[in-house]
Amino acid sequence: MSYLTGTVPVVHLRYSFRVYPTVPQRAALAKAFGCARVVYNDAVAARRAAHAKGLPYPTAAALSKALITDAKRTAERSWLGEVSAVVLQQALADAGRAYKNFFASLKGNRAGARVGLPRFKRRAARQAIRFTRNARFNVLDNGRLRLPKIGDLKVAWSRELPAVPSSVTIVKTTTGKYYASFVVAATDGVDLAEPLEDHEAETGIDLGLKSFAVLRGGKTIESPKFFRAMERRLKKAQRALSRKQQGSVNRAKARLTVAKIHERTRNKRDDWLNKQVAALVRENQALYVEDLNVKGLARGRSAKSVHDAALGMFLTRLESKAVRAGRAFAKVDRFFPSTQMCSVCGALTGPKGLEGLSVRAWACGCGAVHDRDGNAEANIRREGRRMVAAGQADT
Ligand SMILES: [Zn+2]
After folding, report:
1. Whose CA, among 98, 127, 131, 379, lies 20 to 30 Å from 16?
2. Count: domains in the chain
3. Is the alpha carbon torsion for 104, 106, 112, 115 positive or negative?
C-alpha cells in the first residue's frame, strides 16, 4: 500500500452483511462448509505426510489434482462433486497461504509473533467458504445473492456496494449466524471526505498500553471500561465451560454462552473503533501512526486482551478509512525510536526498553522536559510528514 497525498491508491474494502438462508440453503451451505474443511484438512495431511517421509512439499497443482479432481472419482470423496469447484480451490489456496505464512514466520520474514504450523480445522469452529468472480456469484436485481449450488440468499443490505465485488465469503459464526463478506476494489471517488480548511490539521497517533492513543496537543483516547468488563465476563464463562463434562448438553450450552459473549464484545468494540476512526479522519487532513508490533504486545500475557486486539484493528481501519477519504496517511516504522528520541534536539536521551515503560516524564540534556507520550506523538508526526513529503511507500 502506498501513502500518497494526490492520488488514491487501490484499496480492497470489505463489506459484511447478515444473510438469512432458508432451511434447504442452510443444508447446502453446511455441505459446502464441510467439503471446504475436508479439502483444507486433506491438504494439511498431505503436507504432513510428505514432511514425515522427508519429501518436498507437494505443489499447489499436484494437490489440486490429487485432493479435488482425482478425489471426486473415489467412493470416499465423491460428494466433493456436489459443491462449487471454486469453493474447493479456495480452501486449497487458504491451506497454501497458511503454510506460506508459517514458513515466512519461521525464516523471520514476517513481522509479529510466530505463526504456528497449520492445524486441522474443526467442525465446531467458525465456518467459511469463498466464492470468487469466476464462480459466477451474482447480486440479483431483487437484492438476493445468487451462489452456485446454494441458491438465492436473502441479504440484509445496510448500504450499497460501491463497485462490483471480486469475491464473497460466506461465514457461519459459532453462534449460528450467517454473513456475506464482499471484497470490493475501490479506486478514487469512494467516500472522499471534505478537504479541511485548515491544511495544518494533522496529528500523530501514539498507540499504547496505558491510554489507547495519544494525539496531538496531549489529547488522549482512553481504553473504554467495557474492554475489561467483557474480559472478566469471558473468563468466568470459560471457567464454567471447562468444568462441564465432555459431550454433555450443559457443555454445549456453556460453549454457546462463551460464543455469545465473544460476539457481544466484538460488536461493542467494532462500534467504538468505528467512532474513533471516523472522528480522527473527519478532523484531520493528515494522520501519522506508529506501526505497532501488536502481536508482540501480547507476548508475556496469558491471552491477547481486548485492548491489544483492538489496537491492531484500529490500525487497519484507520488506514483504510484515511486512504479512502483522500487523507494523507503514513505508518511510521515500528523500529523508529519515537519514545527514545528528544523531539526538540533529536538526541536519543529518552526512556529505553522494558524498564523504561514506567518512565512517564523525562528531561533531555538540551534542556527540554518531555511527557513521554506527547514527545512520542510529536516524533511520529514529524516522521510521518517527512514520509508523505518524500512519497515513501513501505509497509
Ligand atoms: Zn533534547
Report:
1. 98
2. 2
3. positive
Question: Of the residues 129, 156, 186, which one is the last residue of a structural domain?
Answer: 186
Same domain, 182 and 263: no
Report the alpha-carbon distance of residue 179 to residue 228 in Å, rounded.
28
Dist. CA 275 → ligand 1 center (Å): 36
Per-residue model confidence (pLDDT) at position 347: 92
* pLDDT for the residue numbered 187: 59
236 and 309 part of one domain? yes
Annotation says 206 is catalytic: yes
Average pLDDT estimate for 331-358: 85
Q: Is the pLDDT of residue 186 over 80?
A: no
Same domain, 64 and 166: yes
Q: Which of 42, 206, 308, 377 is catalytic?
A: 206
What is the SS3 assignment for 358? helix
Percent of the chain with pLDDT over 90: 52
β-strand 220-221 against 213-214: which pairing, if any?
Answer: antiparallel
Q: Does residue 331 have a pLDDT over 70?
A: yes
How much distance in Å is there from the Cα of 390 to the middle of ligand 1?
A: 25
At 204, the amino acid letter reads G
